């Protein structure tokens, strides 16, 4: 099999120093997801909350479920991402139910087993030779550097977003203090079953937004990260930092680390996870 036509991708994750809990973030990099085409890669960032049970399960499971989707074999990569997310959440929910039946309760915050309260935001990308296919839930974000300019590839699902706020209100919910029900800042996630009714029209849903982006010669790199980065580093600065680092000979992992360090320097008070995928640089 010929090697992928892209430079190696890389990621970095750091625990928030002001938090007492372990790092709840995870990331996945699979450079060759397809045995038939080495250019098809999978990259994801998972921002867990209320423990790392959900984010860890996603990191172990989602890429396999995407690959197992019939849509993946047919080249319908957006549908494969949607299928993979649905299948992964269903399996995770089954494990939560099994834990409850076995008497594993949700009272111990240090218990890392599947639980009703644990959830995760997600941004996942399939990269082929000519295109990117992206799915996101919550406030994990993907951007691209295109000719040294930042281009947003996803839409944050937050209670402060007018479109998401309107959806929540229409579903019977409310937003208070910029949080859904005054509790959650995000409006879409995997897990968090204590807030879900199992429908696609509820207040908190697991329906991803799906995007497609053509990779042109001007597309330099893809940056995916959780809100630990985006809350303190804007898209333009992230692109400038990444492009400068890659051009200076940094590996993608080193560049991801530099972005995380920048977020720490700028006062991030959250776990920080970054994945950098070089394209044409």
UniProtKB/TrEMBL annotation:
The PPM-type phosphatase domain extends over 8-279
Does the record bear Mitochondrion in its keywords?
Answer: yes
Tell me which InterPro entries the record gives. PP2C, PPM-type-like_dom_sf, PPM-type_phosphatase-like_dom
Keyword Mitochondrion present in the record's keywords: the answer is yes
Molecular-function GO terms, alphabetical:
protein serine/threonine phosphatase activity
Keyword annotations from UniProtKB, A to Z:
Mitochondrion
What is this protein identified as?
A: PPM-type phosphatase domain-containing protein
Annotated organism of origin: Plasmodiophora brassicae
